[in-house]
Each structure stands twice: as structure tokens, then as C-alpha cells.
Amino acid sequence: MAHDRVRDEPAVGLKPNAIGFVDALVIGLNATSPAYSLAAVIGPIVALVGIYAPGVMFASFVPMLLIASAFYYLNKVDQDCGTTFSWVTRAMGPWAGWLGGWAITMTGVLVVGSLADVAVSFTLLAVGLDGWVENDFVRQLLTVLLIVVMTGLCVIGTELSAKVQNVLILLQIAFLLVFVVVALYRVYAGTTGFDSIEPSGGWLNPFGAGGAALTGGLLLGVFIYWGWESAVNLTEETENSASAPGRAGLWSTVVLLVTYLSVAIAVVAFAGTAFLAENAGEEEFIFAQLAGDVLGGWDWILLLAVATSAIASTQTTIIPASRTALSMARRQALPRHFGHISPRFRTPDVSTWWVAGIAIAWYLVVNQISTNALFDSLTALSLLIAFYYALTGVACAVYYRRHLTESVRNFLLIGLGPVVGAGLLTWLLVRSVIDMSDPANSYSGTSWFGLGPPLVIGIVISLVGVVLMVVWRLRDAVFWQERPGVADPDLVHAPARKER
């Protein structure tokens, strides 16, 4: 395990068996922020592919499922809260592992502020305080306070975090279910007031809109599944850690698929493609526009669905970044103080507060540039996500290379599947770089050094990571003495324990 290589590891570790399979599943779901993710992409996807938006969401699910398989099998032989960092280090060496860990940590920094901002905005809209949403000072102050509160919950304990997440996911799913049922009822009753369309099985065909439109839709759709691996980052704190976290990650993607397809079909059927395409630029606020039309005076239900989604994700998105920083510190890939664990709460308090603090600073600084700059920084997320997901897929096949021919199952689920998933994500990464190189494709529409701001942000984050990696290598060479290996045969063939 990861602890075997750690020197002078502190006596206090993460609390084992703090949560179970269901808790991990819920955290994996909430980390993706389903309602917010749907609200943010449904308009742009419909603008590209029309009625085939549900099909594109189904196609986007495929690479995520393949990478989730890689997470499952890698967690089976190495239950380390650093996930990609630890696995890639073991399979491909410390340099690749460090960069994978850096990418995960920075995704948390980039996205937490935006999620909290959305949570605050939709909560204010739900309670009728629309004017506060337009007041930058009030909104940003409440956003910072929300980040602090959710970070505090992360530090206080994984059990408390899980209880909060269970409540939030129940509210979110219930609100979305009400929206879907009412929207489809009104479609078939002919009382929508829009150019509604009765759903058809043909909507699930991702190739119906053609190749170019499908490519654009996939670039948007694949990343609404991002975040499910938070369940695996809690592996050291989960019962039956060799199997439960990995299964939670896999099932998270499946539940997300069903949720996304249901809501997408309801939205397209109710509002029609013309309205959604015309309002694609409204991003997440397209749900705010539809809420009153679908639910009338009960529109606050949908607004709270998005709010609870973003609140939950604000908390769970901190988990991968903080646990990865903890794992890196234990292996001496980062300064030791990032590996401090609270003796009282048994959580990585120092790394958690550091992630939150940097995320707050990023949110406030970028907002001073412009709101569009904040959205541009979120667009840069796709580069980091595609990178570390693809890296994990390759690492799975490399680490298990001596076992891939032992059975057809091993070859397909541990070798071919993760590699295909990595290939698809690498293709999406390249396509994203090409698209982002054109400043016209950014939210701000401005040029930074002749390139789009999202690409510049991605490049700068990558370069900073490389510089920090080299500096730390020169200061402390212990981590870089690790050498790539292969999966332990005893762990590969160990039977999975049944979740309780």
C-alpha cells in the first residue's frame, strides 16, 4: 500500500470505515453537481445537435465508464486517497504521477469558487432576492462564506460530510424528478406554451446530427460526468476499501447517465430546440427561465435543485484536491505539512484549508478581471480533466500488463477498455486545444498572447506545475527514487468482499 514507502509517517491517519458504499456513491454523484451541470450544458448542446442532445449525453458516458473501470481495478490493488497520483506513480514513475496529482489539485482550485457562486445565486433567486444576485459585493461575500462553511464541514469529519451529502442528493433528485414528471405531463397534455415535441427513441442516436456537430457536443457533454471519482478519493475512509469505492465510482456514472437522459429528454420535449438554441448563451440560467413555465408558482423547486447541486459539489470537489495533496505529502512529493491530519477529526485539515484558501483567492482575483474571465478559467478545466483521466486509463493497462492475457475479462475491462477511454479523452483534449486556440471561442472573446484565455490559463497552470515539480525534485529527491512496478499478483486475484 501507499504507506509502505512513507518515512516518518505521522501516527494519526485518516479515519477508517468512516463511511459505507452508499455514502461513497452519494458523494460521487454530488461531486458532479448534476442539476448545475445539466443547466450549464443543455442549451449549448441542443444548439449544436438539436433533438439528439440525449444521444450525445449517452455517447459522452462511454469514455467515463471506461475510465471508471480503470479506477475500480487500480483501487483494488492500491487503496490510496491520492488515486491517480499514486497509481500513475506506481505504473509510470514519479514524474508522470506528480503531474497527474497536480492536475487533480488544480481542478479543485479552479472550480470551487464558481460552484459556490452558482449556489448562492440560485438560492437568492429561489427566495426572491434577485437584486442581490446583481450586487457583486454581496454575491461574492456570500460565496466566500459558503466556501468557508463547506470546507469546515469537510474538516470536521467525513461522517458529517456524508450525512450532509445524503440530504442534499435526496433534495436534488426529488426536485429534478418533479420537474421531469411535470414537464413531460404538460408535453403530452399540450399545455406547454412552447413548440414542444413528443419524445422519440431516435433522440438517443448520437450520430443523428452528423460528425462535426457530434464532436462539438461531445466536447461539452463528456465533462458533465466529471467528479464521480470523489468516491474513490475516500477509499481509505470507506468500508471494504478494496471494492466499495471503485464500485461507487462505477455506479455513480450509471446513475448520472439515467438522470441526465431523463432531464435532457424532458427539457428538449417541453421547450423545443429553437428556444434552447436561442438561449444557449444563458448557460445555467436557462433552468431559471424554464422554472416558472414548467412549475408555475412552484418554480423555486427547480431553482433549489440547482442551488443544492452546487452547494453539494462545492463541498465534494474539495475532497479529491485535498486528499491528493495529502497523498503527495506522505510520499514526500509535497512539503510535509500538507500531510497533516487532524488528531480530533482524522481528516487532512491543512491540505483542505489550503485548497479552499487558494480557490477563494482565485475566485476573487479572476472576478476582478471579469465574470467572463471566471467562465474562461472553468473552460480550462477540460484540459486538466482530460489529461488526468487519460493518464489513469493508460496507467491501468500498464500496471496490470502481466495480467491482461489471463482472461477475456481482464483484457477488455482492465486493458482495452481503459486504453480506449484514454484514447477518446486524448482526442477530446487535442480538439479542445485546437478550439481554445481561437480567442473567438472563449467567453470573453479577447486574445491573450494571440490565443484564447482558457488555453493560456491551461498552459500557465501546466508550466507552473512543471516548475514546482523540478524545484521540489532539487530540494527533496526521496519521492523521485521510486521506480515503476506492476500490480501485485496476490492483490489482483484477491476476491472482492461484499459491501455491507
The end-to-end distance, rounded to whole angstroms, is: 23 Å
Class from helix and strand fractions = mainly alpha
Structurally, the number of domains stands at: 1
Oligomer: single chain
Give the C-level CATH assignment.
Answer: Mainly Alpha
- Count the beta strands: 0
CATH superfamily: Amino acid/polyamine transporter I
Apparent shape: globular
CATH architectural name? Up-down Bundle
Question: In DSSP terms, counting alpha (H) and pi (I) runs of 4 or more, how many helices?
Answer: 20
Order of helices and strands: HHHHHHHHHHHHHHHHHHHH
How much is the radius of gyration in Å? 22 Å
Q: Mind describing the biggest β-sheet?
A: none
Low-confidence stretches: 1-10
> What portion of the residues fall into strands of 2 or more residues?
under 5%
Helix fraction, binned, reads: 55-70%
Model description:
- The chain has a single domain, classed as Amino acid/polyamine transporter I, CATH 1.20.1740.
- Helix 2 (34-49) packs across helix 11 (244-278), helix 5 crosses helix 19 (453-475) and helix 8 packs parallel to helix 11 (244-278).
- It has helices at residues 21-31, 34-49, 53-77, 84-92, 94-126, 130-134, 136-156, 158-189, 211-221, 230-233, 244-278, 286-295, 300-316, 318-330, 349-369, 371-379, 381-399, 408-436, 453-475, 489-492.
- With 500 residues, it is mostly helical.
- It is built from 20 helices and no strands.
How are the SSEs placed, and which strands pair?
Elements: H1 21-31, H2 34-49, H3 53-77, H4 84-92, H5 94-126, H6 130-134, H7 136-156, H8 158-189, H9 211-221, H10 230-233, H11 244-278, H12 286-295, H13 300-316, H14 318-330, H15 349-369, H16 371-379, H17 381-399, H18 408-436, H19 453-475, H20 489-492
